[in-house]
Amino acid sequence: VSVKVTAAELAALDEVLAEAGIESRAEGLRRLIQAAGGVFVPDAQMAAEMARYRASLHEVGNGVAQIAKQMLAANRAGEGADLPFSELRLAQIRGLARFILDSADEIDLLLRRRRDAMQLQATAALREFAHAAE
Questions:
Q1: How far apart are CA 24 and CA 129, in angstroms?
Q2: Three-class SS of residue 41?
């Protein structure tokens, strides 16, 4: 692990480690990771799968929206009472497109909230570690 820090930050880290009785920076980093309870190890595979799922939902939603546009265009081109698609069918297909796109947005929001929660947990673990010597 390589991290760039200022001389002042390194001195502050060494001071905290010394006060906590930790003999090396490597050991301090190990303890920090253990104290964080694994929050530094996000499930990259799950995140990638969710991103693919979200992208797929967007593609499907956009496809359904295009179908709705084509249905509306077909109705506009038709004449009289023999319209190819009823208003009910058009409303249903638009509702389906909206549902799919909203689902993709919910997945995105879920992922963002999870990431933010992980950052808060990591920050709390770092704060606890920094104050352990006090």
A1: 15
A2: coil
Helices (H), the chain: 7-19, 25-35, 44-77, 87-130
- Find out whether 100 and 55 touch, Cβ atoms under 8 Å: no
32-76 pLDDT tens trace: 776 666 555 556 677 778 888 888 888 998 899 899 888 888 888
Distance separating alpha carbons of residues 86 and 71, to the nearest angstrom:
9
Q: Provide the whole-model pTM.
A: 0.49
Rounded Cα–Cα distance for residues 93 and 65 (Å): 8
Q: Is the dihedral of CA 31, 34, 39, 43 positive or negative?
A: positive
Cα within 13 Å of Cα(39), Cβ side: 17
Q: What is the pLDDT of residues 28-41, one digit of tens each?
A: 887 777 666 655 55
Q: What is the DSSP string of 70-86?
A: HHHHHHHHS-TT--SS-
Domain boundaries, the chain: 1-35, 42-128
